[in-house]
């Protein structure tokens, strides 16, 4: 019960890594507010699982690409749950596309969701934590793509590098307030974000074969690392980045 009595907020939590983190936090004793963009059924199912664990859950709809959504999510979460102890920035998109004819609107949307959305959400959560006066923890879901390139991800990899960098700088800015800021860098995780790209079974098997642990990741593989960084077990960890990729990044030979 690493988060007993804590209030945890998670963005993009109607499915995938965000959902796993939200339910994992509830398993460890937290009340949880989730942000989601459009999947009403998925958000309701996530809240139902949180409540089945005996915790309070609330779902708040909003597009993180709109800066006003950050203020709304924090305010409504505090109204429902009282405070913010842990903030998990997870919301993100990756519409795979070739570089040379990448539509400007695809680049713009990806940056606004992944990077601008992270900035304003983290800023709003941090302001609430500073107001409370007793510290907190922020965990951002970056990606292995912050460290390596991708032919069809030229718009995506810069945003994830930016999220990683944001946590490093925020760790410095917020350390004096007792707020720790860290990131997790998932490898290839089987979620809605890449289900079309990995529908090709041969490609999927090739990618899994490159992972030393022999498989692609699942959303639940991220819940433990996120909860660790959010918990007092990581009380002297800030500005860090934790690879959660089955060893893919180091497998170069």
* Number of domains as seen in the coordinates: 1
Structural class assignment: alpha/beta
Described by its quaternary structure, the protein is: single chain
Distance between the termini: 40 Å
CATH topology, by name, is Rossmann fold
Strand content bin: 5-15%
The CATH homologous superfamily is termed NAD(P)-binding Rossmann-like Domain
Provide the helix percentage.
40-55%
CATH architecture: 3-Layer(aba) Sandwich
Total helical elements = 7
Which descriptor suits the 3D outline?
globular
User: What is the H-and-E element order?
Assistant: EHEHEHEHEHEHHE
Q: What is the topology, as strand order, of the major beta sheet?
A: 3-2-1-4-5-6-7
- Mean pLDDT across every amino acid position: 96
Q: What is the number of strand segments? A: 7
Q: Main β-sheet: number of strands, strand sense, barrel status?
A: 7 strands, parallel
For this structure, what is the CATH class?
Answer: Alpha Beta
Low-confidence stretches: none
The rounded Rg comes to: 17 Å
Give a written overview of the molecule.
Belongs to the short-chain dehydrogenases/reductases (SDR) family. It comes from Sphingomonas turrisvirgatae. This is L-rhamnose 1-dehydrogenase (NAD(P)(+)). This protein has a single domain (7-244), classed as Rossmann fold. The chain contains seven helices and seven strands, in the order βαβαβαβαβαβααβ. It has helices at residues 16-27, 40-52, 67-81, 104-132, 157-174, 201-209, 220-230; strands spanning 7-10, 31-36, 57-61, 86-89, 136-141, 179-186, 241-244. It has a seven-stranded parallel beta sheet, with helices on both faces. Helix 1 (16-27) crosses helix 7, helix 3 (67-81) runs parallel beside helix 4 (104-132) and helix 4 (104-132) runs parallel beside helix 5 (157-174). The longest helix has 29 residues, at 104-132. It is globular. 47% of the residues are buried. The model has no long low-confidence stretch (mean pLDDT 96).
């Amino acid at each position: 019960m690493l988060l007993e009595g804590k209030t945890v907020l998670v963005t993009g939590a109607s499915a995938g890594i965000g959902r796993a983190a939200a339910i994992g936090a509830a398993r460890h004793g937290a009340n949880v507010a989730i942000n989601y963009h459009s999947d009403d059924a998925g958000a309701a199912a996530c809240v139902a699982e949180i409540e089945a664990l005996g915790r309070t859950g609330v779902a708040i709809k909003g597009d993180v690409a709109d800066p006003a959504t950050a203020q709304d999510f924090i305010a409504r979460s505090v109204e429902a749950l009282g405070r913010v102890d842990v903030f998990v920035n997870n919301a993100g998109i990756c519409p795979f596309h070739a570089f040379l004819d990448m539509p400007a609107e695809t680049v713009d949307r990806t940056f606004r969701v992944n990077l601008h959305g992270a900035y304003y959400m983290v800023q709003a959560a941090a302001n609430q934590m500073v107001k409370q006066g007793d510290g907190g923890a922020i965990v951002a879901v970056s990606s292995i793509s912050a460290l390596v390139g991708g032919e069809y991800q030229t718009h995506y990899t810069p945003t994830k590098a930016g999220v990683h960098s944001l946590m490093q700088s925020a760790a410095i800015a917020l350390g004096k307030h007792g707020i720790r800021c860290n990131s997790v860098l998932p490898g290839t995780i089987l979620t809605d974000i890449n289900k079309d790209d990995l529908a090709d079974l041969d490609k999927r098997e090739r990618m899994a074969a490159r992972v030393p642990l022999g498989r692609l990741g699942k959303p639940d593989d991220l819940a433990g690392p996120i909860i660790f960084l959010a918990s007092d077990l990581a009380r002297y960890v800030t500005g860090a980045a934790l690879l959660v990729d089955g060893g893919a990044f180091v497998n170069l030979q």
